[in-house]
Design brief:
The protein is of the alpha+beta class. The protein has helices at about 45-65, 100-105, 135-140, 145-170, 210-215, 220-230, and strands at about 5-10, 15, 25-30, 30-35, 40, 70-75, 80, 85, 90-95, 110-120, 130, 170-180, 180-185, 185-190, 200. Strand 1 and strand 2 (about 15) form a beta hairpin. Bound molecules: adenosine-5'-diphosphate and magnesium ion (MG).
Length: about 240
């Protein structure tokens, strides 16, 4: 019996239905994109690394009381997740200035942000994910005020848990993007947490260990993701080098 039907293919993951209407199969692909999908390349092992990375982080967050969609690993490149009705906004938390914040505000890269900042962006590649705010979210009914408050609270709780986890491994969690959705009546964290959607620097050398290596053509992209995984204690299966 075929129970898995492709529901949606995004830039990095594909979602399939399962025999359980409340669950989806989330397949992490090797596709790596930047600049709102303008630059797309296949990077060997990336899907596998991100699948294990995401599983590890989501389980840490669940243990810390932050509800999320992760259920279990299915195989090297896919996981079973709760089926959510996604809120079409991205929540970005920053501990150090980098990327678009530097371009928009003219601040120096690496400036420590105290307290950390929180931003909303609309998930819309055609519009290049424009920055939005609470007022726009309410007016256009992308989410309710209750959802907004909950997303901000969870996003900052995530920061407390993960900044410490990364620092213990000698890593700085520079910034990250989260997506939330509704599971029945509760709002929970969805999508993924991987080096595709955050910035991670070595705490001492400031070596870039995230998708900026791909955006800036620095090379050794997946090798950097694997270094982070290894330093966090994430066990990755040994795969033959393609
Ligand atoms: N648990 C979930 N239930 C339903 N949709 C989800 C869930 N987790 C993530 N998604 C959605 O899956 C889609 C595929 O992910 P991705 O490839 O990262 O897409 P995108 O190109 O939009 O970034 C995204 O639209 C994301 O919001
Ligand atoms: Mg995505």
């Amino acid at each position: 019996m075929i129970t898995e039907t492709l529901l949606y293919t995004g830039k990095a993951k594909s979602l399939y239905t399962t025999e359980n209407p409340d669950q989806l199969l989330c397949v992490f692909r090797n596709d790596t994109s930047a600049f709102d999908g303008e630059k797309i390349v296949q990077l060997a092992r990336k899907g596998m690394v991100n699948n294990y990375f995401n599983a590890f982080i989501m389980q840490k967050l669940a243990q810390a009381g932050i509800p999320n969609h992760f259920e279990k690993l299915k195989n090297d490149t896919s996981s079973i997740v709760k089926r959510l009705k996604m809120i079409p906004v991205e929540c970005v938390v920053r501990n150090f200035a980098a990327g678009s914040l530097c371009r928009r505000l003219g601040v120096e890269m690496g400036l420590e942000l105290k307290p950390p900042t929180f931003e909303f962006f609309l998930k819309n590649d055609a519009l290049h994910d424009p920055m939005i705010n609470d007022s726009l979210i309410i007016t256009f009914q992308w989410a309710t005020q209750k959802d907004i408050d909950q997303m901000k609270a969870y996003a900052l709780q995530v920061n407390t848990v993960l900044s410490e986890l990364f620092l213990k491994a000698g890593l700085l969690l520079v910034d990250y993007k989260l997506e939330f959705g509704h599971y029945h009546n509760s709002l929970i964290l969805g999508d993924e947490f991987s080096p595709d959607g955050c910035r991670i620097w070595d705490a001492k050398t400031k070596k870039v260990l995230d998708k900026d290596r791909f955006r800036k053509d620095m090379g050794d992209v997946v090798e950097a993701y694997e270094e982070v995984a290894q330093r966090l204690g994430i066990a990755l299966p040994v795969m033959p080098v393609a």
